[in-house]
Each structure stands twice: as C-alpha cells, then as structure tokens.
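Design request, tokens follow.
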C-alpha cells in the first residue's frame, strides 16, 4: 500500500470556473487523503457565479486562487485532469509518466439567456463535476489500496 498522498491537478483555460468547481468538490469529498490543485493555461480570476452555486452546495471556493499552471505544480501532480478542450490541446509539456484524464466539459460561463437560465447551466455543470469527482476519488482510493 502506498503512503504517498495523491495530488490531483484540475486544469482549464482560465482557472475561473470548471477547474475551480472541481477543486472545491475534490477538497470537500477527498478530505485529507488527497492533495488538490487547480490552474489554468492563463489566470482569468474567479467566476462569481461559480462561487455562488458552490456556496449553494455548502462549499466555499471564494478563497481559492485563480492561478496559471507552473512547472512546480506539474512536478508535484500525480494525476492531471483537463476539464476543457482548449486546456487539453494547449497543455504545457507534462512529464511522460504523469497520468492524464480529459473531461470535455462545456463552459457554463458561455451560457446565455435569463439569469435563471444561466444559473441552471451553472448548477448542471456543478452537479456533473461533482459526479465526475466522486467517481475519480473512488478510483484513486482503490488504486492507493492496491499500490
């Protein structure tokens, strides 16, 4: 059984919404058995709607930082999860041994319509990301028990 705590890095274009939501869920659901980071190819600041919909679920992501991915982040990462096509296609060079998963998530920040319609898109993204993070953490736990 491995004693090293896995470190998951969620990467998107601007680290404003999808990766922030994933970081919040992974920290909440993974507790101390996993380190969690999020970053972007660029740093665009946090999306206020992402903060609001996560608060509705009881998770405060307002203190998370919107950061640009660095070589140091990649060096400590044991699993890279790209959460948008742009990040997947433009991800900086990663170590060859680093496992990588791609989640092709639509960007809720591009939703249009009434405030209620946009909020519904954000909630759907939040719930989809939660399910994906739950499944990912289940697999990580099994791997940690086997390795």
């Amino acid at each position: 059984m491995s004693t090293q705590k896995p470190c998951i890095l969620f990467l998107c274009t601007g680290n404003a919404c999808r990766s922030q939501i994933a970081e919040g869920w992974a920290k909440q659901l993974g507790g101390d058995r996993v380190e969690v980071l999020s970053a972007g190819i660029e740093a665009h600041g946090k999306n206020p709607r992402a903060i609001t919909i996560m608060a509705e679920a009881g998770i405060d992501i307002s203190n998370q930082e919107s950061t640009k991915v660095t070589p140091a982040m990649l060096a400590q990462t044991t699993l890279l999860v790209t959460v948008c096509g742009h990040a997947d296609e433009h991800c900086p060079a990663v170590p060859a041994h680093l496992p990588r998963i791609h989640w092709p998530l639509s960007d809720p920040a591009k939703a249009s319509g009434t405030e209620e319609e946009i909020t519904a898109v954000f909630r759907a993204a939040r719930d989809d990301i939660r399910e994906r993070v739950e499944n990912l953490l289940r697999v990580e736990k099994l791997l940690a028990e086997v390795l």
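Comment from the thread starter after seeing the answer: thanks! The helical segments are 18-30, 48-56, 71-76, 85-90, 115-146.
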